[in-house]
Amino acid sequence: MPVTVYLERNAKLYPNEIALVELNPEEEDTRRITWKEYDLIQPGRFEPYRREITWSVFNEKANRFANMLIGRGVKKGDKVAILMYNCLEWLPIYFGVLKAGAIAVPFNFRYDAGEILYCAELAQVDVIVFGPAFIGRIEINAERLCKGRLLIYVGDHCPSFAESYHELAADCSSQAPEVEIAEEDFGAIYFSSGTTGFPKAILHKHQSLTQAAQMEQRHHGTNRQDTFLCIPPLYHTGAKFHWMGSLVAGSRAVLLKGAKPETILSAVSKEQCTIVWLLVPWAQDILDALDRGELRLEDYELAQWRLMHIGAQPVPPSLIKRWKAYFPEHEYDTNYGLSESTGPGCVHLGVENIHKVGAIGVPGYRWQCKIVDEHGQEVRQGEVGELCVKGPGVMTCYYRNEEATAETIREGWLFTGDMAMQDQEGFYFLVDRKKDVIVSGGENIYPVQIEDFLRRHQKVKDAAVIGLPDRRLGEKTAAVIEIKDGMECTREEIENFCLELPRYKRPKEIIFHEIPRNATGKIEKPRLRKMYGADQLVAQENRG
Fold this sequence. Notes:
- This protein is α/β, with parallel strands linked by helices.
- It is 32% helix and 25% strand.
- The protein contains 17 helices and 27 strands.
- Helix 1 (4-13) packs across helix 3 (55-71).
- The radius of gyration is 24 Å and the shape is globular.
- The N and C termini lie far apart (65 Å).
């Protein structure tokens, strides 16, 4: 069945219960709607930083948007891009696209004008829905974007090249459109994160979306009493499909805009959140603030918080050890996944396996995994190879890219590009991205292992290890290190700390710099290599 069935069910069973809350405490003026419009959403209650809708209103808004699209000529299989920050309108618009039988195409809100145009043309989108922050980026290419496309603006003061979401949808029917949707129909196009190159368009069927929703609810036991705190961007598969566990359970979720430690703990406390998904940098920031005494746990009501889980990148075991010292009662979980597998969960640690911290886990609900060598043959347990996954959430293809699809999907198996190993108990450990492996003097060096080690240093906030060109070795390891706020650290301190590593793993270059991460918390290593790799090579050639 399509995932929209859960929304319709919740609207019938729990019509007056709160489905979504939007919190925006870090901005002085967050109101994007008029008082009159707000009263239509939640009569009698207004706070400038908080909005909420019930399941019935959520479903009605999705239906109105679906009917508006259909009324404007959008047909089954047409593509609708969504370019907005997290807000209360985001998910009703997404579900409205699905209910219309169209394909939802979430855009990364960090895209510049050129990337927006590139992705719109690659995915052949028919409609672009965008918010106030993106007027300038859309306007730059408005003439090309408007050609054959409908531009819909969500917010006040609609620009001349677009049409108003509120005006278009206001008079549309709130009844579900009569569009039949099957699991085999196409439902969404997501874009690769771009950490290994320019984004590729990833096409999924409705089956993938339903699988991800059911898997999330099953993995974390999400029930009607839970409240999920969602901080990462909804355009990303991770945030959206973790939230869909709440959709399946029929429980409340909070969309929090802002990731400061105090903001997160305040939201958990005030909204009585029970499940929180954090990215590594945010968990690190909370722990650092607690260490410095800037936050005190006794100032917040946190007893109901039962689960903290992390994904989107390798999780340092040292971080979880520190977390458990502050939050000993928390269940902990980590999920591995990628947009090509409909987000996190194809490999899943499980709250019962905290003794295996450091592993990404075992195959998730309805998934299979294997590790293969460069010839596609399975390796023995304990050996490093490329992780492959297979299950009902595997993408259909890279849209309009047959060559990349053939390289990535073989006989139903998705070749992830991640290097991993499996221990004797059957748990998978992520070693590194295949493209990030450093080959130095014939030795394979896996940066994640060195990064985990460096983060144990009491002064190190974050670390990224990259390969730099070297005439003699081919590549040499360079450690880019971000120091904790208020601390100072020298190259000699890091070098002495690294004496515990085997000689070939010790960084040959130490660079102190802030670690760039994308919106989903992944280290932007291509950016680092661009920043330092070419300069190093030029310097070597000049010395030669």
